Amino acid sequence: MRRAWVEKRKKDNVRTQMYYAKQGIITEEMEYVAKVEGLDPELIRKEVARGRMIIPANINHLHQKPMAIGIAAKTKINANIGSSALASDIEGEVEKVRVCQKYGADTIMDLSTGGDLDAIREEVIKHAEVPIGTVPIYQILHDCNNKIEDLTIDKMLEVIERQAKQGVSYFTIHAGFLLRFMPLVAKRKMGIVSRGGSLMAAWMMHYHKENPFYTAFEDILDICRKYDVSLSLGDSLRPGCLADASDDAQLEELKVLGELTLKAWDKDVQVMIEGPGHVPMNQIERNIKIERDYCHEAPFYVLGPLVTDIAAGYDHLASAIGAAMAGWYGASMLCYVTPKEHLGLPNAEDVREGIVAYKIAAHAADIARGRKGARDIDDAMSEARYRFDWNKQFELALDPDRAREYHDETLPQDVFKEAEFCSMCGPKFCSYKITQTIMDEHGIEQGA
Asked: What's the pTM value of the predicted model, to 2 decimals?
């Protein structure tokens, strides 16, 4: 769909989605998004022009299906994958991409830090039909032989453009963490928990100079505009525990992200803002409102947030609680957490668990926000349950495979097709069956 249109854009010196939106032009990507979201194309255009919605679609990722992140669109989820210095396997990362797409991740971030990073990214992009995001500082450090003091702005820009050429659709850039914030970090219980943020702190303290991502931000914008790469402005100072939530370090950085947002919009570069982290339930709504105020309503992309710090092994659940609330209050995309969070590198099964937990959170948020048609599938599931239509229930489930697995553990395949009960209630205690019998015996017609 996109090839001819992208070639035209290249001839136009590669204009961004935001550029076209500001000119009053509805792009092919906007048309596609409008159909998927069930929205008017003109609304999509206006939201992109305003900066409240982004369509991350690098011109070199031609087989990517356009999608939108913004308050007017359905709540999206991102899944993180990636190798490490201790475990690097290209085929393993490709399998994670397959799992991400099977279970419904809207975007995928390749956070690889070990192995042949360019080769891994090339395969990930080749197999992905969703936008791919990265955190360039990981490769910048890798290419500097893991010596942060060897980082130069020239090396930083070279890596960023190399990834853009490959087809990365959005970058997490840690540009809002300034040298003057270091005293605020010292007041924290857990300091800096962002990998990118800690690397920037090490560089700034070594040279006693300002964050190079901040000083070279205009150059980064030029690269993003050239390939239509969106920016995910990273929260280097996100809280890594409840004790640090909503503190001065987090909020001062957020103000700078708001300033950088306006600079990006001046160059027609699309922006979303990354958010915390670990936040107690009673502070989530406030965090959303503050981001909306400081960052001019740019889409908010939150990690969780985790609402407790003691759920090791179950952090996908602790964070999905916060994610559902964040989506309800106005976050546009939720970054998933797997059961391995804080403990180890997730495998394909962990990816599945994290994605499904977050699909539940995002869907619950869309229902709470009253999005058109969001509850239709829930109503269809209720009808299928009441009719004992097991196959339909499996079809409608967010994870049909898991639903079948659990059901088949107790009822053989040839039984569930006809069974008018589940194994928990059995044939004599099924409330649906009892209700239906009562209605039939007394001639009561049941409504919708």
From this structure: 0.93
